[in-house]
Amino acid sequence: MVRLVRESFAVVEPQADHVAEAFYATLFSIAPEIRELFPLNMQVQRTRFLRALVHIVQMIDRPEELGPFLRQLGRDHRKFGVVSRHYEPLGMALLSAIKKFAGGAWTVEVEHAWAEAYTIVARAMLDAAAADEGPAWWTATLVGHERRARDLAVVRLQPDHPVPYLPGQYLSVEVPQRPRLWRYLSPATLPRPDGLLEFHVRAVQAGWVSRAVVAEAQPGDVWRIGPAMGRLRVDRNAGRDVVMVAGGTGLAPMRAIVEDLAQWGDNPRVHLFFGGRVRADLYDLSHLYNLAGSNPWLTVVPVVESDADAATMQQGTLADVVTRYGAWADRDILVSGSPAMIRSTVSRMLVAGTPLDRITYDPFTLD
């Protein structure tokens, strides 16, 4: 099954965008009531679907990693209103889209393999959704909006009830300016007794939600917050030191983890590389320096790609600078940032000799 799924997916992957379009067109045709669960603009949704599909195909023979991802996905889909009766048309649409672009690679055996794979995926998601006794989402009121730069804001929200998450995880959010356009944001602080959430949001060019949050959000707005996801964490008992690589607002989950570690007296050594294009992108550097000043196990390394006014900082991309120090083969590596930054950093580290099983990153972009 694994071989047939991967071989046939390799045929259709070069046409992945068309596969996603065909999937949703077929889905909305055979189950029109599902259309209202999705936003009017489907571009980001198609991208997210493809990212999840690729991740599942990559992990299909690694159940110890795929299982937790699917369970999180199943719990998370409750916030969209997805219920058990929707999974059959979802599977029909997926197989139809793959078949359409697989051409001669689509055989009866391949069809059975994809059906078996989808059954495994759907069952894991359904079981997780049914077992989750928590709410599908929480409501939270925006109580603070601090503009750190033209394209960056720090926002703080007070949920009606504390949202459970672990430092390093991310949450899906829906803002009133962009209904049904859920986006992922990572809390930048460890969970607080009062439940207050802090997010760091940079407006990106194609980011409908991020631009709305930075430019239009205001105190009193009511957001919806979905369940926590993600696997970035530091195991204090593993006996290994840690390297954190954070690009831009990818700093948020690393900051939460560091603040959590700061509660303990005995920690692994942590090298935190914080990078941006220019010095102004390192928007939270002073806070990191304060943390390092009171926690000798933490070393902060600021990185800029090109800035004459930042001569005392490391120059180059994060991938350049991190691998300049070596392979870090004996460390646990956490990477967070844009998809392009994660791809380049992980690729360069693998070439430098970093073991793949030492590197952790989440498959979704945070915006």
Blueprint (SSEs and pairs):
Layout lengths: L1 H11 L3 H15 L12 H17 L3 H14 L10 H16 L5 H24 L6 E12 L2 E8 L10 E5 L8 E3 L11 E6 L5 H8 L6 E8 L12 E6 L3 H11 L8 E7 L8 H10 L3 E7 L9 E2 L2 H7 L7 E5 L2 H14 L6 E2 L7
Parallel strand pairs: 7-8, 7-11, 8-9, 9-10, 11-12
Antiparallel strand pairs: 1-2, 1-6, 2-5, 3-4, 3-6
Helix pairs in contact: 1-6, 2-3, 2-5, 4-6, 5-6, 10-11
Kindly describe this structure.
The structure is a single chain. With 367 residues, the chain is an alpha/beta fold. The chain has 3 domains: 2-131, Globin-like (Orthogonal Bundle); 138-229, Beta Barrel (Elongation Factor Tu (Ef-tu), domain 3); 242-360, Nucleotide-binding domain of ferredoxin-NADP reductase (FNR) module (Rossmann fold, 3-Layer(aba) Sandwich), CATH 3.40.50. The chain is 40% helix and 19% strand. The protein has helices at residues 2-12, 16-30, 43-59, 63-76, 87-102, 108-131, 208-215, 251-261, 285-294, 318-324, 339-352, and strands spanning 138-149, 152-159, 170-174, 183-185, 197-202, 222-229, 242-247, 270-276, 298-304, 314-315, 332-336, 359-360. A 6-stranded antiparallel beta sheet has the order 4-3-6-1-2-5. Strands 10-9-8-7-11-12 form a 6-stranded parallel beta sheet, sandwiched between helices. α10 (318-324) packs parallel to α11. The longest helix has 24 residues, at 108-131. It is globular. The two termini are 34 Å apart. The mean pLDDT is 92.
